[in-house]
Amino acid sequence: MNSRIVILGAGESGVGSAILAQKKGFDVWLSDAGQIKPKYKQVLSNYAIPFEEGKHSEDEILKAAEVVKSPGIPEKAPLVKKIREAGIPVISEIEFAGRYCQAKTICITGSNGKTTTTMLTYHLLQKAGLHVGLAGNVGHSFAWQVAEQNFDYYVIELSSFQLDGMYAFKADVAVLLNITPDHLDRYDYKFQNYVDSKFRIIQNQTKDDFFIYWSEDPVIQQELKNRTIAATCMPFAYGQAPENGAGINKDTLTINWNKNTFSMSIFDIALQGKHNVYNSMAAGLAGKVLNIRNEKIRESLSDFRGVEHRLERFLKVHGIEFINDSKATNVNSTWYALESIHRPIVWIVGGVDKGNDYKELEQLARDKVKAIVCLGTDNKKIVDFFTGIVPDIIETQDIKDAVRASYYLAKDGEVVLLSPACASFDLFESYEDRGRQFKMAVREL
Fold first, then answer.
1. Rounded mean pLDDT of the chain?
2. What are its GO biological-process terms (predicted)?
């Protein structure tokens, strides 16, 4: 029997998968077309896992019984097509690790808010004294933790790319926050393909599992009409809380589950802003179905510190507040950012456009944005759309120039908001890199 597993990509998920595969007795080989970071190279050497970098040796890769692919490598890549043509299964790290995981999984997806909700849910479970790991898009590799830790619970943030490579994996608690157009370049510019990808979060669920979702989301509403849901449904929305679910009424957040009610004032929630109230309802519901006590849920929702690069209010310079929202890599994320600020904004925007439609930002930009500072190698689409809507538009291709320009455009009491609505890969390694460089440039003012 062929026991060869090939891992494509040597980031956190790839290296974790390689460690787990080796531990389970597979013949492992790892291949990365780029240069592997020194810290990961060191780990591979320590575990004596054979690897290559700077190329993909097709003849070696096509000997695999199964391939674990990094979520960053698109299906359209010629190598992935060849692997599939050879009839070799291609799976994600989450699918692979799930085979060896006995722990309960709380899996969270959505176009926006998933990192905040994941971190908040993890915080809640930790506070309750549960033995819990944090994995997926945040935290450490799920596979690596399954190989070397023994957690009872995992809170896992899942992107659509990770969900695409999952087949037998099941979430015990699935959370779907919202669905708005994103990553359409990876889905043949067909929104339904992306929607189907997000709904993989509930695949394989049974009546013993839970599905937590935002019931006001029009896309989710429509999809639920066309699907049979096996799990117990736990909707959340503004308005009266359902019998099993969450709601907001007269500034009170209420969660009902199994004839047990939890409530607290929305003004006591640590994360302010309408979108964060949704995130808090989702995390609170996950806590309830895991039978966490009300006082622990209340404590967690009221003392959570937030997520770096997500509406991070981190510094004031001469009365100008600088907000780092580098994690806003799509239009809808930026909509939430603009909507939550009630002072004049100098908005830093731009990067790799993923098929953005800026129409939904038009009214907010008219009402709130006094100037735009573009930050990207190609800003034409942004300039064309917002000319005549925002009085001042400046183009930059360097974070220091962008920060300096925004500083000169803003006045005491106003806000400079980095909320790019685009991916970061034209000028930065990642949205984290973009956020950190932004903060460094602000500190140097």
1. 92
2. cell division; cell wall organization; peptidoglycan biosynthetic process; regulation of cell shape
